[in-house]
Design a protein that fits this description.
593 residues, alpha+beta, ibrinogen binding protein from staphylococcus aureus fold, Helicase, Ruva Protein, domain 3, Helix Hairpins, seven-stranded antiparallel sheet, five-stranded antiparallel sheet, 38% helix
Length: 593
């Protein structure tokens, strides 16, 4: 669902109505591949997001806020130097390609007003943001592309900017009927859908398929199999689509699976063939892109930023699992310890019957009711007393090993459960503050070393629990880390609040605020809270997940226990399956505010 030329046309139309003739202010670079700046317009301020992210490159207006680094990256400093205070005079899309160009008038070092161009190239992993001067000389770019990286085009400061290599596609806005029919005729062996998007710039495979559907043509049919009437029908559908773009007849919408509610596609044009989907309309294309990409961007950012911690935790989990295997093997080796003790005692009791060089003692096992005869191996080089001591020593060594093993096994299982809870917290993390909590916790637990870095004068953003509103109007809070779980359960929750947690499975603590009336909590609210507890746990992908619940007053924190570890005895258990659509149906507090 990458941005195609049609979506970009809608973005440019919106930006033309909102930020052209505005002045650029407050430029920031919160991520290595993302720029944000404000545009001061008469009576209002708009915020623009430009991303050259390999997965989600785009430009649109934004209302979200990201925390900025203490020291601005070099590219951000270059932008501040050259375009801060500059006036946006024009925004356009060359040749209907996936390129957006902002023309900006700003003062140079001599104080003269000169034109600059800020160019966003949306090309997947090759996406880039480039600043040029009035002579098309590159002042800087978000990603530097040297000759070693690309023999086709260098993107480096001081080089002359050139557009990405042309792919031989025609601009669909200028296409005539003969151009279109010729494109189909020249590619008779190709599918109609492929012929359209490979012949005309800015047309995605999805939109090419929609054009075919609107014409009543199978998009997978070979071009050579179409009749003249069918080709004409496809052309009319194509022309109708282009006409709507030229007339700015945009209707931004998400297309959702009618049953599951999951996002299938987005489009800036509505068509009758979309009736098979559930539609979610948006007033502006920026609102749609903000809705669609923010969660994905954030998930990617969190995943990238948590990579090292996740690797560290997984390495320690693997170490604990290996240690468990060794402990189980050792336990297996000590299973005969009682027999060794008995052999020593039987040798001692029958010491008179042992003759020199005897290798096997046949003795009556008087420890068993039927008193069977057992055979005991002897070392002929040892005396009877030494043979007895040999078995006693094996028994005593195994006994000491087993005693130590029980302690080590418990410590290892506790550490494994703790590390799995950290891994679950990393899966639950939604913002940088959550990761900071987890990092601090790992440092306190001794898994990572604290680095002596220069103190940030800004007060760190405090991570907050997730906040939901049940269908009955009850407030539900979900912890996102072990430290937050402790604070939520032990400090925030009142004694009569309902506490929930997956049974013997690492996961989040969940609190239902009862306002002192736990008996008034409806079953539906209890079920929704249990669904959240199961969803934000290691059992997220499982079915019939057991969730324990009890009043907060029944929860205790053992002395010296690791963060997030609590005990309880009085509880009830319910079983739920945390399906995605059920979780989405539970309202977040922000949605109700």
């Amino acid at each position: 669902m990458a941005l195609d030329g049609i979506t970009i046309a809608n973005v440019i139309y919106e930006l033309e109505q909102t930020i052209v003739n505005g002045r650029i202010d407050k430029i920031h670079q919160p991520l290595k591949d993302e720029i944000r700046f404000s545009v001061r317009c008469p009576g209002r301020v708009e915020k623009v997001l430009i991303s050259a992210n390999s997965d989600h490159p785009r430009m649109h207006l934004t209302e979200t806020v990201r925390e900025n680094p203490m020291k601005a990256p070099l590219f951000c400093m270059v932008l501040r130097k050259h375009i801060a205070g500059g006036k946006i005079t024009k925004i356009y899309q060359p040749n209907f390609e996936r390129i957006i160009i902002l023309e900006i008038e700003s003062a140079n070092e001599m104080g003269d007003i000169t034109p600059k161009r800020l160019i966003l190239e949306i090309m997947g992993k090759h996406s880039n943001l480039i600043l040029t001067d009035e002579n098309d000389k590159i002042l800087d770019s978000m990603k530097h592309i040297s000759h070693d990286t690309s023999s086709v085009r260098e993107v480096l400061p001081g080089k002359t900017y050139a557009f990405p290599p042309a792919q031989g596609k025609k601009n669909p806005l200028w296409a005539t009927e003969s151009d279109f029919l010729a494109a189909l005729s020249q590619q008779e062996g190709k599918k109609v859908q492929a012929a359209i998007y490979q012949s005309f710039s800015g047309i995605s495979p999805f939109m090419a398929s929609v054009i075919c559907q609107n014409a009543g043509i199978d998009s997978s049919a070979p071009c050579g199999s179409l009749t003249d009437m069918e080709k004409l029908s496809v052309w009319e559908s194509f022309q109708n689509t282009i006409s709507r773009i030229q007339n700015h007849d945009f209707s931004p919408l998400l297309l959702l699976d009618a049953q599951k509610g999951s996002v299938q596609e987005f489009s800036v044009l509505d068509f009758p063939c979309f009736d098979q989907y559930t539609k979610k309309d948006f007033p502006k294309i920026s609102a749609l892109l903000e809705y669609y990409y923010t969660a994905r961007d954030n998930a990617l950012h969190i995943r990238q930023k948590s990579h090292n911690m996740r690797h560290l935790v997984q390495t320690n989990i693997d170490r604990c699992l290996k240690k468990r295997e060794i402990q189980l093997k050792t336990l297996e080796e000590t299973k005969d310890m009682d027999i060794w003790q008995k052999n020593g005692e039987l040798i001692t009791a029958n010491i008179y019957a042992i003759t020199p060089n005897m290798t096997v003692l046949s003795a009556v096992d008087y420890y068993q009711e039927d008193m069977p005869t057992v055979l005991i191996q002897l070392d002929p080089t040892k005396t009877p007393a030494e043979n007895a001591q040999h078995y006693y020593k094996k028994y005593n060594k195994a006994k000491r090993t087993l005693s130590a093993l029980e302690i080590q096994k418990k410590q290892n299982e506790d550490e494994l459960a703790y590390l799995e809870s950290i891994l679950n917290a990393l899966d639950t993390a939604q913002e940088d503050a959550d990761l900071n909590d987890i990092k601090n916790e790992l440092a306190e637990a001794g898994f990572i070393h604290r680095q002596n870095t220069k103190k940030d004068s800004r007060k760190p953003k405090k991570s907050k629990p997730m906040h939901f509103i049940s269908s009955d109007g009850f407030h539900i809070f979900v912890g996102k880390s072990n430290l937050q779980n402790d604070e939520l359960t032990l400090k925030f929750a009142e004694s009569t609040d309902i506490w929930l947690h997956t049974k013997e499975i690492p996961g989040s603590h969940v609190i239902i605020r009862t306002n002192g009336k736990p008996d008034d909590v409806p079953d539906q609210t209890l079920t929704e809270a249990a669904l959240l507890a199961a969803y934000y746990s290691k059992a997220k992908q499982s079915s019939m997940v057991p969730v324990d619940y009890t009043q907060r007053k029944n929860i205790k924190k053992p002395n010296g226990a690791k963060p997030g570890k609590v005990i309880y005895y009085t509880n009830q258990t319910m079983y739920v399956t945390p399906e995605e659509d059920k979780i989405k149906s539970i309202s977040t507090a922000s949605a109700q505010e």
